[in-house]
Specification:
9-stranded mixed β-sheet, 6 helices, 15 strands
Length: 248
């Protein structure tokens, strides 16, 4: 598909359309070995060889990053009052159009996907896709069998009924570590589900989306690109998922 050269370069983090236009007119861009000085020159970025200052462009239509989100940072593209997850991106990974695919509360940590692919994000977040999100939570009170049953049946909230979810205890104690698996992403959902059972979440971290697990080597605040296989893992399901069992 033919696109303007300046639009292509701008999408690949070479600057604004105005800045890229100036770059092209300076005579530092070639297409298939030929010097091009017209910003509106039509190219096929997935077939043509585009070089800037003699370096071939590795064109990426979309990018997908995994972030280990720290607490205290907003899951937003921009905010005039607070630091956002995009502010944490190193300059070489930043580009126009990026946004967090789904959100984590400001004080929630863990797996967050950042992309500029709207279709990918919509598919991942749509309840009908059945993509599970797995959270580890520390609570202020022990879990009982009735809590697990309530999660499995689908908790009745004031404004909606949750889809069936799974709850299991990872570590016993006065402040147990538990794992909650949900197929939705309502505002404050996990915290609200526990609150409905009389429990307060003291710490919350997302560790898995679909079959994509948070890279244990990724330190808090760090980010890296997702491989094609990892992107596919987001949409793969485990045999015991509610969606596989016809429950959601």
């Amino acid at each position: 598909m033919a696109e303007r050269l300046d639009k292509v370069l701008s999408s690949q983090n070479f600057g604004s359309r105005k800045e890229v236009g100036s770059l092209i007119r300076k005579g530092v861009v070639t297409v298939n070995g030929e010097l091009v000085k017209q910003p509106d020159y039509k190219v096929n970025p997935e077939a043509d060889t585009i070089s800037v200052h003699g370096k071939p462009l590795f064109f990426e239509r979309f990018v997908y990053y995994m972030m280990n989100k720290p607490g205290g940072v907003l899951s937003a593209a921009r905010d005039s009052q607070a630091e956002t997850v995009l502010d944490l991106l190193p300059p070489e990974l930043a580009r126009r159009g990026l946004f967090p695919a789904g959100r984590l509360d400001k004080d929630t940590e863990g797996l967050l996907i950042i992309t500029d692919d709207g279709d990918f994000s919509h598919r991942m977040l749509a309840p009908k896709s059945g993509v599970e999100k797995v959270y580890h939570a520390v609570l202020d009170a022990p879990i009982e069998a009735a809590d697990m049953e309530a999660f499995a049946q689908g908790l009745e909230m004031k404004d909606w009924t949750c889809l069936p979810a799974r709850l299991r205890v990872l570590e016993e104690g006065e402040n147990p570590l538990v794992e909650a698996t949900v197929c939705e992403g309502k505002f404050h959902q996990v915290k609200r589900m526990f609150a409905a059972r009389g429990k307060t979440v003291l710490f919350l971290k997302r560790v898995k989306i679909g079959n994509l697990e948070l890279d244990p080597s990724l330190k808090t605040g760090e980010v890296r690109k997702l491989s094609f296989q990892e992107r596919q893992a987001v949409f793969s399901r485990t045999p015991d998922s509610p969606a596989e069992q016809g429950e959601g």
